[in-house]
Amino acid sequence: MASIDIAAIRKAYGSTHVLHGVDLTIKDGEFVVLVGPSGCGKSTLLRMIAGLEDISSGEIRIGGRRVNDLDPKDRDIAMVFQSYALYPHMTVAENMSYSLRLRKTAKDKISTAIAGAGAKLGLGALMERRPKALSGGQRQRVAMGRAIVRAPKAFLFDEPLSNLDARLREQMRGEIKKLHQDLGATSIYVTHDQIEAMTLADRIVAMNAGIVQQVGSPLDLYDRPANLFVAGFMGSPAMNMFAGTYRNSGGAPRVELAEGVAVPVGEGIAAADGAKVTLGIRPEHVVVTRGGGPGIQAFIDLVEPTGFGTILHASAFGSDVKAFSLERGLATRGDTVSVAFPVDRIHLFDHEHGARIG
Amino acid sequence: MRPKRLGFTILHRAAILAYIAFALFPLFWLLKVSITPNDLLYGEGVRMWPSRSTFDHYVFVLEHSDFPLFFRNSLIVSLSTAFIVTALASIAGYALSRFAFRGKFWIVGLMLLTQMFPLVMLIAPIFKILSPLGLTNSLTGLIIVYVAFNVPFATFLMQSFFDGIPKDLEEAAMIDGATRFKAFRQIILPLTLPGIAATLGFVFTAAWSELLFALMLISGVDASTFPVGLLSFVSKFSVDFGQMMAAGVLALIPACLFFFFIQRYLVQGLTAGAVKG
């Protein structure tokens, strides 16, 4: 096991810049998830750590050793691919033992390692099968088995669950987490699925357009997103965002939204009176009351029951306000309700740059 | 089955049968003439099968002609060409499929260019080049020429097979601890066996039946290949069709055998299951 240090990493293909200087330190045994929309550079960064892409500038160290110029085979890392990349002409056992055979490991050690990994992943009965005779979930397990037999310095996962159906994905997500708890191996996991990121990570690295937007624990990113991108990316249904003007003169601090609606906000906001801001609030924090309760008057446009709870779409002050409630039958389409934004749940962002201001 | 569907099925099968009959008829005629005694060849008119058959032509070709020698020459030339071309095309096709390098565009363009004009144009210059090197009238010279002409197309053929194999596989192998060449040899090549078989078959057939250059570059009997040898049955005064056809049937045997051995790989879709299907 080893730590991984990434310093000022840049990547350019000709004149196209994919990564604009990424700095990141991954501690020994940590599970770090790189998350972001497609094209944000997360897979490129992972492939640079693996040695599959050249580094345009900057430095990568694995276990303190500079690896910029090392071939993938000399970096002692294992990688699980989105496509699984199992060798079709080899059996499960041969797939898993390939790396050990390349290293000329003794036969008895190989069979012990394979048997151990096979037992851990429930592959015992499939050892003599070829990949094409396996289901998606089994192939996924073989790909993981191939990674763990070697006890490498670090595991890299490149969207390993994207090809599985929703149910299997949830199950494998649990298995990956359990595996990490068992092995305590340094892991870097790339995904565009924020649920995977939230559930698996010790720390999340949110990326967009080749720039790291925020690094922190899952709840950190969820509760205190550093900017509009992170606020909008993390969480489903997504955070409500409304453009408004910040006021702190002539009364308590507030944000004026459209149609004369003013929402009280907390003290200590880093903005001047009259500044353009974006107000964010997560749907589950919007308080919906039937009839003429306190708050802003709204009309229910759409009701989406998820079973677990209900997503309400309401129109108020010319915007669509999403609310999530565990209560069923709170409102039906066409109802008039009032919505309220609790002060301690409000996120404020600078309108121009999108940075968090309170 | 409804009558309409049945009608379509019958029509469909009949069309396939007609196509096969059309394609194979020359082969049938080859066989038919090769076992027809000389006295019946012109005497019986057009018949689908002679009233009397004989293997005399085969016996003559095998025992009293130079055909065994021509066969041996053709085998040496065709097999060497097929293996050399396939080896070169595999490596070149892999490079074209996987790497971006300076001049790639021009190399591909030049290779395409070689396929664009008729080979007849090149006979004289090639003869001029090979003659001082002592490579005319030699099997080696013929092999060199065949290799040069077959490599471009075979390279494109192999490239398309490599393109069909996901890059992830060799990347996984390289992370597992293989060098790029080892990943190529142990992971990619075994998966390209159908492509290699197709290329071998294609080049073998091309070299086996090549007449133009063999005729121009080879003058002696010692280095003649079988297509050149076939012409020896055409004399100034007559054509010995029976013996010529018998030799033709015999010449089919190696080609058939060759395809019999590689057909297993030709029809095999080994990549199934490599990545999510």
What does this structure look like?
The complex is a heterodimer of chains A (358) and B (277). Chain A is built from 8 helices and 20 strands. Chain A is of the alpha+beta class and 358 residues long. Chain A has 2 domains: 4-232, 3-Layer(aba) Sandwich (Rossmann fold), CATH 3.40.50; 238-350, OB fold (Dihydrolipoamide Acetyltransferase, E2P), CATH 2.40.50.140. Chain A has a 6-stranded mixed sheet with strand order 6-7-8-3-9-10, sandwiched between helices. A 5-stranded antiparallel sheet of chain A has the order 13-12-11-14-20. The mean pLDDT of chain A is 91. With 277 residues, chain B is mostly helical. In chain B, helix 4 crosses helix 10 (193-208). The longest helix of chain B has 32 residues, at 3-34. The model of chain B is unreliable at 269-277 (pLDDT under 50). The interface between A and B is medium-sized, with 33 and 24 residues.
CATH homology superfamily name of the largest domain in chain B: MetI-like
Q: What percentage of the residues of chain A does DSSP assign to strands (E)?
A: 25-35%
End-to-end Cα distance of chain A? 39 Å
Placed side by side, the strands forming the largest sheet of chain A appear as 6-7-8-3-9-10
Work out the radius of gyration of chain B.
24 Å
What is the mean predicted local confidence, pLDDT of chain A?
91
State the helix count of chain B. Answer: 13
Regarding quaternary structure, what we see is: heterodimer
The CATH architecture of the largest domain in chain A would be 3-Layer(aba) Sandwich
Largest interface: A-B, 33 and 24 residues
* CATH topology category name of the largest domain in chain A: Rossmann fold
Compute the number of helices of chain A. Answer: 8
The helix/strand series of chain B, from N terminus to C terminus, equals HHHHHHHHHHHHH
CATH fold name of the largest domain in chain B: MetI-like fold
GO cellular component, one term (chain A): ATP-binding cassette (ABC) transporter complex, substrate-binding subunit-containing
Family (chain A): Belongs to the ABC transporter superfamily.
Subcellular location (chain A): Cell inner membrane
Protein name (chain A): Multiple sugar transport system ATP-binding protein
